[in-house]
Structures are given as structure tokens and as C-alpha cells.
């Protein structure tokens, strides 16, 4: 039997600490707010709020306003530009995290400090302890499709990179990961390699070289895991040649990566033949991952929200291996850990850690008294099961009453802390008239159309949308990339199906009276969404942070251009 205590972490103790922490989450929240406000009391932002040293929740809520990133940009840029005075925090901010920019069309700078790193390790430890209780790992390695962005300095000399890059480069990261058996099979030179395509190829190669030792497969987002195995389908014979000859493919040109890989590669005809035989024996690549990595216990990454459309294909590659959703957070900071690892990603919930920040929730249920005035936020322990909320965070890194923009549903409680399900981004809405369709509504509509394609043994590779108001009346435009060539009849039916599947009463009513025009389906050429990924990589986003933009707004003109320039076929709905 495996011992519970492993190289620096006692999983039973971590679970006990979490149980104690959530026993009285309300009290922990008050203490956490007090700590944040005391540590940062000298910050200009808090001094100007009129708190005058008070640290109780009531004073905090009455003095400090709810804010978005736009409200804090001036403060953040002063820090980034080198202003040494305490602006948002008492201690200097050492680094800035860059968001991916896929949601809003532009990248945001947010503060990153040691406290956020500690939160990261606490979240990782907590979810690992619960995960390992259900799916114990043996000694080994993990296949991680992780990539670091090119680090750069702000005008004021602060380090800047993606949130994941800031974590990977932190001195505490490696020891923390070793303690929870999160050791990557690829050398650092591959993770920090200058070219994503070369790093991905080498990650796959390292996984094959250590195939017997791989305990799980990981990337930050499900999209990156899917992309990796779609790539494997294209390059598997080349990988087999590298293993057979002990020579790295000429496609990898980065000197640092070639040197690191040369230390691992030795001629191994037996391994090459084994992999070749296993791949040749698969039916349409079903069960590829457990076939390649026979000792893997699960596949792990963020699989909720905009990642859900990728789960069907990921399950195809995973065969019987469980998919497990990673924890809930954002570039701004962490919120909650997955302490119910047996739940499939579609049902995943996340228990809020009450000591990593101060959390408030704006009720989103539509009732008459809320139509003209936004409801007051409620505290962590005041939320109700089954209700939807927008989440507000106050962090140790200088964000106070910050609107994260996420909609969550309370599914239950773990002791006294809520277990949240991610629903959607609040600002990603298709709307022309009185209609309001969220990212989730779009996803459900596309899933219905996907069922028609599945009957033809085809699948949706990826999708996006926009609102076209250049026509009168305006109408929705859905972009689909499809794995093959459906018939005209099927595509026309897909278009009608998409239109009918938006069940928002405002949309249906507006369509019936022609206040919204017929939905337009634009089928794009294969590789279009890869071009969108390449666009974001060119802006400095790392692939493991990438999320396909689902609703492309006017700010995202370059993505609109890529989509519109790659349209192969167009159809208009006749559903209404």
C-alpha cells in the first residue's frame, strides 16, 4: 500500500487543515480581510478610501467601491512604470501577470507577489490531497504540456509574463511541485523554449521516452491537451524515428532545447517499434493516451466553462481514463480548489478557500426589485444553494472589491464554505435587442448542431460567434470549423438548429417579430482556429493559457478579420 506521507507533504494533514479552515469560514473571512487591510493600510488606494485603519467588513464595504480592471489601470500602470510609493499594497509589487487577452481582445496587467505564490501552492496542495486520496499516484513523472512566455520587464523594471510563467519561474515552485508529485518529464529547456511548436514536439517525445513512468497528463487548459494529441496524430511516425535513431528531428532548431533533449535521447529500436505497433493498432485514435502511457491514472487540467466543448474529443483520446478538472482561479488570483475529484468535469465543483482572499457575491437572480438597482453583494457564507452570483475578490496583491466577471452557481457547502460551479463569463453576451445569450447558451446551441454532424461521423473542431449589426435588423453569426465535408442539406439543417437552440425568450420573441434577423452560419476552412491561436502566440500569450474567444466583440478586430477572411460557406437560417 502507498504511504500517505510523501517527500514533504502529508496528505491526511492537508485535508485536516482544510476541514478546520472551512469549519467556520465566516470567521476566517473576517480574519483574512483584517490581515489584508492591516498589511496594506499604508497603500495610497486604501488611505484615500476613508477607512482610517478600520478593518471590519461593514466599514470596508461602505468605504471601498466595487471596481473593474479599468478602474484600477491608472494605479497598476504607475506601479509598472516604476513609482516606488505604496500605491495598491504596503510592500512593493515585484512582478506583473499578463492575462491572455482572449476574453476582452486586449491583455491586462495585474499585480503578482509572494502572497499569490503562497496561495497557488496552498490550492495545489489542497486539491492534490483530495485527488491522491481517490487516485493514489505511484512514484514517477507527469506529462505536462506547459509553456513559459518570454519574460520581459515593464518600464519600471518589474518582471512581466503570464500568470503561469510567474508561477513556473518562482523559486518556490519546483520544491512545491516535487512535494505533490508534480514533476514534469520534460527538462526546463523545453518548458522555457523559444518556440511553442518545438516545445510541444519535445513534450510528446519526453512523454514517450518515460512512458512507463507517466502517472498523469496535465495542462492548464483542456484545449492544450487536445491540441497536443491532435499534433501527435500528425507527427507520431517522426517521433518513432527519433526514438529509433536516438536523433532529434531537424524541426527542433533551438540550441538550448536540442542540447537538453540530446541528454535524454539514445537509440531505442524496441521502444520505437512498440509505439509504432500500438499506434497502428488503434481505431481512429480511440484510447490513445492510456495506450501510450499504461500507468497514467487520470488527465488533469481546467475543463469547465469555455473548455467544455473539447471534452468529447478528449474523452475519445482518454478511453477509460478519468478526466479531472483543475482548480478555479484567474490571472488575478485563486478562488477555490477541486475537493470532489471523482465528479466529471461537467459537474465539477470548487470549494472556496476562505483564507486566500476576501470574497463577496452579487446575486444575479432576475426579480423586479433588482431591475433598476444592482443587488448588494453578500458574504461567502451568506450565499444560497442553487443561486447564481457574480464573484467579487479582494486579494493580498492589491485588488480590492474587484469584479472578476465570472458567474458562478452555488451547488452546496463543504462545512461552511460554498462549493461553486463555474457558469460563464458575465460580459460575454450575444445581444442585439432585448435578447441576452451567454457563452453557455452559445455552447449548448453548438452542441445541438454537433449532434447532426455526429450522425455523419463528423465533429466540430472549434467555434466562435459575433453580432452583426451592419445589417438591419442585426443578426447572430456563428463560425464553425468542421472536421470534414458535410452535405449542403446537413449544413442548412445545422444553421436552423443553431437558431432554434437559442431559447432565451428575448431572442425567440425578437426573431418571431423580425426584430433580429436570421442567424448566419459561416463554415470556415480547416486551420482557421489554429491561425487565431498563432495570432495570440504572436502577442506573447502562451498556448497553455489560450482560450478560444467565443463571442468576438468589436475590440477584437484582428480575430474578426481572421474569421471573416477564412469563410468557406455561408448559410442563413429559415427556422423562423
UniProtKB/TrEMBL annotation:
<dbReference type="Pfam" id="PF23571">
    <property type="entry name" value="GH3_M"/>
</dbReference>
<dbReference type="InterPro" id="IPR004993">
    <property type="entry name" value="GH3"/>
</dbReference>
<dbReference type="GO" id="GO:0016881">
    <property type="term" value="F:acid-amino acid ligase activity"/>
</dbReference>
<dbReference type="InterPro" id="IPR055377">
    <property type="entry name" value="GH3_M"/>
</dbReference>
<feature type="domain" description="GH3 C-terminal">
    <location>
        <begin position="440"/>
        <end position="552"/>
    </location>
</feature>
<comment type="similarity">
    <text>Belongs to the IAA-amido conjugating enzyme family.</text>
</comment>
<dbReference type="Pfam" id="PF03321">
    <property type="entry name" value="GH3"/>
</dbReference>
<dbReference type="GO" id="GO:0005737">
    <property type="term" value="C:cytoplasm"/>
</dbReference>
<dbReference type="InterPro" id="IPR055378">
    <property type="entry name" value="GH3_C"/>
</dbReference>
<protein>
    <recommendedName>
        <fullName>GH3 family protein</fullName>
    </recommendedName>
</protein>
<keyword id="KW-0436">Ligase</keyword>
<feature type="domain" description="GH3 middle">
    <location>
        <begin position="351"/>
        <end position="425"/>
    </location>
</feature>
<dbReference type="Pfam" id="PF23572">
    <property type="entry name" value="GH3_C"/>
</dbReference>
Amino acid at each position: 500500500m502507498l504511504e500517505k506521507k510523501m517527500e514533504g507533504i502529508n496528505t491526511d494533514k492537508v485535508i485536516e487543515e482544510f476541514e478546520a479552515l472551512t469549519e467556520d469560514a465566516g470567521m476566517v473571512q473576517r480574519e483574512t480581510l483584517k490581515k489584508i487591510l492591516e498589511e496594506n493600510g499604508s497603500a495610497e488606494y486604501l488611505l484615500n478610501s476613508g477607512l482610517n485603519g478600520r478593518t471590519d467588513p461593514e466599514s470596508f464595504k461602505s468605504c471601498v467601491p466595487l471596481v473593474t480592471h479599468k478602474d484600477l489601470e491608472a494605479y497598476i500602470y504607475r506601479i509598472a512604470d516604476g513609482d516606488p510609493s505604496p500605491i495598491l499594497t504596503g510592500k512593493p509589487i515585484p512582478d506583473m501577470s499578463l492575462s491572455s487577452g482572449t476574453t476582452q481582445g486586449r491583455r491586462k496587467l495585474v499585480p503578482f507577489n509572494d502572497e499569490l505564490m503562497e496561495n497557488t501552492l496552498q490550492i495545489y496542495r489542497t486539491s492534490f490531497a483530495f485527488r491522491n486520496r481517490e487516485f493514489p499516484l505511484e512514484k514517477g513523472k507527469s506529462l505536462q504540456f506547459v509553456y513559459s512566455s518570454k519574460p520581459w520587464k515593464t518600464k519600471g523594471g518589474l518582471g512581466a509574463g503570464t500568470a503561469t510563467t510567474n508561477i513556473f519561474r518562482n523559486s518556490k515552485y519546483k520544491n512545491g511541485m516535487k512535494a505533490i508529485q508534480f514533476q514534469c518529464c520534460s527538462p526546463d529547456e523545453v518548458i522555457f523554449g523559444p518556440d511553442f511548436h518545438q516545445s510541444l514536439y519535445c513534450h510528446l517525445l519526453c512523454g514517450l521516452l518515460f512512458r512507463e513512468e507517466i502517472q498523469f497528463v496535465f495542462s492548464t487548459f483542456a484545449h492544450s491537451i487536445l491540441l497536443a494529441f491532435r499534433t501527435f496524430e500528425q507527427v507520431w511516425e517522426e517521433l518513432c524515428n527519433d526514438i529509433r535513431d536516438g536523433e532529434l528531428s531537424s524541426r527542433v532548431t533551438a540550441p538550448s532545447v536540442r542540447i537538453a533533449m540530446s541528454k535524454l535521447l539514445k537509440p531505442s529500436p524496441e521502444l520505437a517499434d512498440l509505439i509504432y505497433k500500438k499506434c497502428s493498432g488503434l481505431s481512429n485514435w480511440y484510447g490513445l493516451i492510456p495506450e501510450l502511457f499504461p500507468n497514467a491514472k487520470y488527465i488533469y487540467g481546467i475543463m469547465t466553462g469555455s473548455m467544455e466543448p473539447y471534452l468529447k474529443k478528449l474523452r475519445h483520446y482518454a478511453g477509460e481514463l478519468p478526466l479531472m478538472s483543475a482548480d478555479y482561479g484567474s490571472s488575478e488570483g485563486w478562488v477555490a480548489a477541486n475537493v470532489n475529484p471523482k465528479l466529471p468535469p461537467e459537474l465539477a465543483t470548487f470549494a472556496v478557500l476562505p483564507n486566500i482572499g476576501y470574497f463577496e457575491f452579487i446575486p444575479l437572480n432576475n426579480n423586479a426589485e433588482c431591475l433598476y438597482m444592482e443587488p448588494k453583494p453578500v458574504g461567502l457564507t451568506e450565499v444560497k444553494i442553487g443561486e447564481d452570483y457574480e464573484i467579487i475578490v479582494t486579494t493580498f496583491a492589491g485588488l480590492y472589491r474587484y469584479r472578476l466577471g465570472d458567474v458562478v452557481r452555488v451547488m452546496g457547502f463543504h462545512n461552511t464554505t460554498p462549493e461553486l460551479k463555474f457558469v460563464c463569463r458575465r460580459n460575454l453576451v450575444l445581444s442585439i435587442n432585448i435578447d441576452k445569450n451567454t457563452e453557455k447558451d452559445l455552447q449548448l446551441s453548438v452542441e445541438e448542431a454537433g449532434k447532426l454532424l455526429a450522425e455523419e461521423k463528423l465533429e466540430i473542431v472549434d467555434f466562435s460567434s459575433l453580432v452583426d449589426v451592419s445589417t438591419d435588423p442585426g443578426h447572430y453569426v456563428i463560425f464553425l470549423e468542421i472536421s470534414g465535408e458535410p452535405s449542403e442539406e446537413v449544413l442548412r439543417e445545422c444553421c436552423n438548429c443553431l437558431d432554434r437552440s437559442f431559447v432565451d425568450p428575448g431572442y425567440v420573441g425578437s426573431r418571431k417579430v423580425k426584430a433580429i434577423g436570421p442567424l448566419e452560419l459561416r463554415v470556415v476552412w480547416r486551420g482557421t482556429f489554429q491561425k487565431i491561436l498563432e495570432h495570440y502566440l504572436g502577442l506573447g500569450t502562451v498556448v497553455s493559457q489560450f482560450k478560444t474567444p467565443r463571442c468576438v466583440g468589436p475590440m477584437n478586430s484582428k480575430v474578426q478579420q481572421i474569421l471573416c477572411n477564412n469563410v468557406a460557406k455561408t448559410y442563413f437560417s429559415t427556422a423562423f
